[in-house]
Structures are given as structure tokens and as C-alpha cells.
Design a protein that fits this description.
It is built from 14 helices and no strands. The protein has 280 residues and is an all-alpha fold.
Length: 280
């Protein structure tokens, strides 16, 4: 008598350890998309739980930094293409704060979820991905603040705003690429958690946030273009402020570097994730 499987039986899932530099299974990650959503939602709730000001912190960060930088650097004769310096700097601070917060959150996300990793199977990439996506709430609020400031300073909105979704996707991929590398390294080398704040602080001054890329001496500009955030910042300024020509060269360079950074980061993360539960 032949045995037949039940029609309504759940599919058989076989879990095998990954080997070598095998490519990521993005279909599996898509099947766990609800987990990514709930992990991101958890991060948002934890961030603002029992805070007196709540999401007002998202507004205070760029506003306070804008005020300080305007006082210190506003009269230094920096190139702003006729845009008021406060608007010039805040248009860069909004994507920068997203990048710095998302990178910092993703870098320690794997170690911070030790109990979950050691007990339940799921694609480990879901953890840094959720940490990066959770900060999109802050980025959205920051962009709304930027639009309000544009109206306050009497700067009209232009068609370049249509490029914002592409620029947002680019800064998300940049944060994910750096975050994936750091989160995998943090499992093996706990020095990473101490190095990241200093690393991000130095990166701020190596990125044209306070100044324009045009203010950098000619001999240093090729080095500046190796920074993937250079094209991101210049792109946001162009889209929000309608100042100058589209920074196509900077955006192309940043896109290429982000692709390399993300591809190598994902491969390294995939290679190391099989040891996460044991090392943590």
C-alpha cells in the first residue's frame, strides 16, 4: 500500500549550514520580511520608550547642529551657491544623521540580539537590515523639517525633489553596506563597538557636510570622491535646494563604491554568520 503525503501538510524545510562564500539567499530573506518589519518596529519603540521629548529629539539634532555650525562656520566664506548657510548645512545634516544613527545601530545589532540568534533560526541579515530600516522614521521627520525650513527661508520647491526617493535608497544602501561589515566584525572583535563612535565622528569631517566639495583643494578631491557619502550629500543638496548642476559624477562614484561595499559586506556577513551563535 503506497503512502501519500497529506494535501494540507506544511512544506518541508531543511536547514543546512552555509559553506564558504556562498551567495545570500534573498528569497529566504523575503520569506522572513514580516520578521524584518517587527524587528524594525521594535527598534523604533525601544528608541522612544520613556523619553520626555519623544520624536522631538529627531528635530533637535539637526536644528542644534545647524545653529552651532552656522555660528562657527557661517561667516567663513564657504561656497553655498547663494543658499543661506543654515539651509546649506541642514540639507546635509538630515541624511548624515540618518547614516550615522543607522550605521551605529546596525554595527551592534547582531551582538545586541544574542538571545534571539542562539535560540531561533532565521536569516541573520534580518537584524542589521531592520536596524537600518528603523531609522527611516527619523529620516522622514528630518526631511519634513527641511521642507518647513525651505518655506521659512522663502526657497521654493523644485522638480528636483522627485529625485529624493532615489537618494533615500542610496543612503539606505550605504548605511546597510557599512552596517553589515561592522555588525559581522563586531561579533569577532568587540573593539568595534568602541571604535564606531570615533569612526563616525571623523567621517563627518571627511564628508562635505559643513563645507562644499568645491571648497576642498583640487589635489584632495579624488580622495574625497572615495567617500560614498560625498555623492549622497551633494545629491540631497541639489534635490532640496536647487543649487547648481546635478552632481552626476559624484553620484556615479558613490553608487559604484556602495555597490562594491555592499556586495563584499554581504559576502563577508554570509561567511561569518554560521559562527555567530557559537562566538556570541
Amino acid at each position: 500500500m503506497a503512502l501519500t503525503a497529506d494535501v494540507g501538510a506544511p512544506p518541508l524545510v531543511v536547514i543546512q549550514p552555509s559553506r564558504g562564500w556562498r551567495a545570500l539567499d534573498f528569497r529566504e530573506l523575503w520569506r522572513f520580511r514580516e520578521l524584518v518589519y517587527f524587528l524594525a518596529l521594535r527598534d523604533v519603540k525601544v528608541r522612544y520608550k520613556q523619553t520626555a521629548l519623544g520624536v522631538a529629539w529627531v528635530l533637535l539634532q539637526p536644528l542644534l547642529a545647524m545653529g552651532i555650525f552656522s555660528i562657527v562656520f557661517g561667516q567663513r566664506g564657504l561656497t553655498t551657491n547663494g543658499v543661506p548657510y543654515p539651509l546649506f548645512v541642514v540639507s546635509a545634516l538630515v541624511p548624515w544623521f540618518y547614516f550615522s544613527n543607522a550605521t551605529s545601530g546596525a554595527s551592534g545589532s547582531v551582538v545586541g540580539n544574542t538571545q534571539l540568534i542562539s535560540k531561533v533560526y532565521f536569516p541573520r541579515l534580518a537584524i542589521p537590515l531592520a536596524a537600518v530600516l528603523a531609522n527611516l522614521v527619523d529620516l522622514s521627520i528630518g526631511l519634513l523639517l527641511e521642507l518647513v525650513l525651505l518655506m521659512v527661508f522663502g526657497v521654493g520647491l523644485s522638480w528636483q525633489l522627485l529625485a529624493l526617493p532615489v537618494l533615500v535608497a542610496l543612503v539606505v544602501l550605504t548605511a546597510l553596506g557599512v552596517g553589515v561589515w561592522l555588525s559581522a566584525l563586531d561579533v569577532e572583535y568587540r573593539d568595534v563597538r568602541y571604535a564606531v563612535p570615533f569612526f563616525v565622528q571623523v567621517w563627518l569631517f571627511a564628508t562635505p557636510v559643513i563645507y562644499s566639495a568645491g571648497d576642498v583643494p583640487e589635489r584632495w578631491r579624488p580622495l574625497l570622491m572615495l567617500n560614498p557619502m560625498t555623492g549622497v550629500i551633494e545629491g540631497f543638496r541639489w534635490a532640496l535646494l536647487d543649487s547648481g548642476e546635478a552632481p552626476l559624477a559624484a553620484l556615479a562614484g558613490s553608487t559604484l563604491i556602495v555597490v562594491i561595499l555592499l556586495a563584499t559586506g554581504l559576502l563577508y556577513f554570509r561567511r561569518m554568520e554560521r559562527t555567530f551563535a557559537d562566538v556570541i
